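> Could you send the FdhF/YdeP family oxidoreductase prediction when you get a chance?

Sure thing. Input:
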Amino acid sequence: MAGKPPTGDPVQDAPEVTSPRHSAAGLPAIAQTLRTAQRQMGVRRTALTLLRVNQKDGFDCPGCAWPEGDERHAAEFCENGAKAVAEEATLRRVTPAFFAAHPVSGLFGRSGYWLGQQGRLTHPMYLPEGADHYEPVSWERAFDIVAEELHALSSPDEAVFYTSGRTSNEAAFLYQLFAREFGTNNLPDCSNMCHESSGSALTDTLGVGKGSVLLEDLHKADLIIVAGQNPGTNHPRMLSALEQAKRGGTKIITVNPLPEAGMERFKNPQNARGLAGGGVALTDLFLQIRLGGDHALFRMLGKLILETEGAVDTAFVEQHTHGFEEFAALARTADWDETLRATGLTRAEIEQALQLVLASRRTVVCWAMGLTQHKHAVATIKEVVNFLLLRGDIGRPGAGVCPVRGHSNVQGDRTMGIFERPAPAFLDALEKEFGFAPPRHHGLDVVRAVRALRDGTAKVFFAMGGNFVSATPDTDVTEAAVRRARLTVHVSTKLNRSHVITGARALILPTLGRTERDRQRGGDQFVTVEDSMGMVHASRGRLAPASDRLLSEPAIVCRLARRVLGDRSTTPWEEFEADYATIRDRIARVVPGFEDFNARVARPGGFTLPHAPRDSRTFPTTTGKANFTASPVEHPELPEGRLLLQTLRSHDQYNTTIYGLDDRYRGIKNGRRVVLVHPDDARALHLADGSYTDLVSEWTDGTERRAPGFRVVHYPTARGCAAAYYPETNVLIPLDHTADASNTPASKSVVVRLEPTAGPGAAPGGAA
Ligand SMILES: Nc1nc2c(c(=O)[nH]1)N[C@H]1C(S)=C(S)[C@@H](COP(=O)(O)OP(=O)(O)OC[C@H]3O[C@@H](n4cnc5c(=O)[nH]c(N)nc54)[C@H](O)[C@@H]3O)O[C@H]1N2
Ligand SMILES: Nc1nc2c(c(=O)[nH]1)N[C@H]1C(S)=C(S)[C@@H](COP(=O)(O)OP(=O)(O)OC[C@H]3O[C@@H](n4cnc5c(=O)[nH]c(N)nc54)[C@H](O)[C@@H]3O)O[C@H]1N2
Ligand SMILES: [Mo]
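Output:
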């Protein structure tokens, strides 16, 4: 039987610390998978569900966006994918009786962990103005309420339509269509906090804001550089690809302030060697870089390549690139002292990296949040592109850029037009297909949406999934901002903190998850998703829905659009709801690369979207070439006695969804309020291992923000750097602390002071 959710709360946060592990997966991962899954789903459902994950006739794992290879294992999932599935397929339920028993003011004091563990939402729920209890509401009445508030706005731009990255292509396409027919481009998404910096840098330099490699390119690469990413926890199936590459002789350089277990050694649970043997060592060279030092590192590598006879692919540079001379002139001035200071590395380590680079004829660079969430993130990623361009490592097999995406369909949502700054060509296509004039002025991204709510210029907040108040920075500011809204609406599967921090009125609209059967008037439906490498494929759930009151995301958008837009819209919303193939027919006519969508997605495994730089070394940039970028090297400066804090994920969480209180690979159990500090830094700051400290961030305007009561863990991170989990630490990050050009919150570089305290802080409701 499935176990009960935790009852005690605040959940006891009492970290126990052992030493970090040096390998990932193996038997402990399988044991953990089954334990978590059975606790949520029971034995029978666990077996039925997990065997359908990522199969060609099954559903896409709601975990990460890592692609599936052509050959699938019977168990094509990982420990953390299984946890994501178990969270959704849980047998626990949050019913109207739950809301009758728990006033919103009571839920406010609960942790996000506790809220999430209560189970699946079963009924549409409404919180009237001034009320302290959500009450059940009919779908019709719920849509009336949204329509009432939307119609009361003085401009469509006073509404914000957020999207998290699990939404299917079909739902996303309809959602942006609805928002634009309503009259706004206010379509912020989780990508604004995630890979926006990658999209921004890659669009400027290569002309396409997506990765340029396919799975087989990783297998063919001579060298893979994994910078700012922890795949052992966040993209575990990537380790299988790295393992396969290693067996073919690929070298791997890992660039990270933390020695992450998954990059050290991988014990593949799908083969005997992984289970019984010692597994495979993945990393050949570990560069333990300081936070934010990557720009300096890649610039120095660029200089060294330029100085090496015959190392530059001059034919490629001449034929396909723009701006080489300017870049080369600047790169030649790169300074060793500055590089060593910024990176914390030794000259010998960087020269060793250079040898691996020069020995490689095909190099891939993979990255994730460790590069994207810095003030100079866009400049850093452009430097990665410079580095690859020098060697001609774009647009040929075994080489390229590989930004590893987070949410399982975050890339697809963008392709479908979820973007506050849509390309004119996309709007032209919408206009032609649907016969309305879409708004042309740019909308709000996540940070700007929070400001607009704070300033009262946005009044209705609608979320297609996600957990906005917990995922965004500056928790206190954001919560106050959201409370000013007239109406907040969340289309959700599970209870979270965004249901508790509400506008004057609030709605929870419960929806189907990936694992569930989606039956409409036109029969059983499937949806489609796009993975991190531009592969589009079908996802079909089989489980009975968590409740018979749930509507699918496409159905919710269709009914809402009909109610809000009325006769104004000539879009066939009813037809779309009945048969998703009719949505795909429209996508095929609007979005390039989706021609003949229904036929092509019917093939097992789906199809790959075109990518000009990858396919033909053509670059749809403003210069028509791949662009080198010449910008001064940037890196964070650290005042005396301070540490640079990165906010990251534990092994037991999916963003703001907390699965449990352990971080197995880092040797932490039963607690999340920990701060990892280098032993020498800790000693200099008089912080004993096991002592407690407040984290205090200091901002340029003189303000301070405090997160109380973190247990100090002496940990082998880079000097001057510290690490603690998100979302607990979001309270420390000022809204205005964002990356240049992409406006992504700089969650990986927060200057903090550590103030010793007597003991564990009372974890406020804002805690995980
Ligand atoms: N199980 C699980 N899977 C997930 C998620 C989850 O929460 N749980 N989240 C999903 C989402 S939305 C995303 S975006 C991805 C996130 O995947 P990751 O980006 O792997 O997630 P983080 O935990 O933020 O880890 C950042 C990594 O970068 C390193 N790092 C931090 N700063 C720097 C730096 O300045 N330079 C370098 N070189 N390294 C640095 C950190 O030490 C850490 O190893 O995972 C996705 N998959
Ligand atoms: N400090 C700090 N902040 C960060 C980050 C960081 O590294 N550090 N990372 C950032 C990143 S990379 C991201 S992507 C964002 C994540 O931001 P979000 O995507 O907004 O957050 P999640 O925690 O992934 O959202 C979880 C909620 O989604 C809902 N949900 C789950 N599945 C479905 C579904 O199928 N349909 C619908 N409608 N709802 C569903 C559930 O109700 C669940 O509670 O956070 C960002 N914030
Ligand atoms: Mo993300």
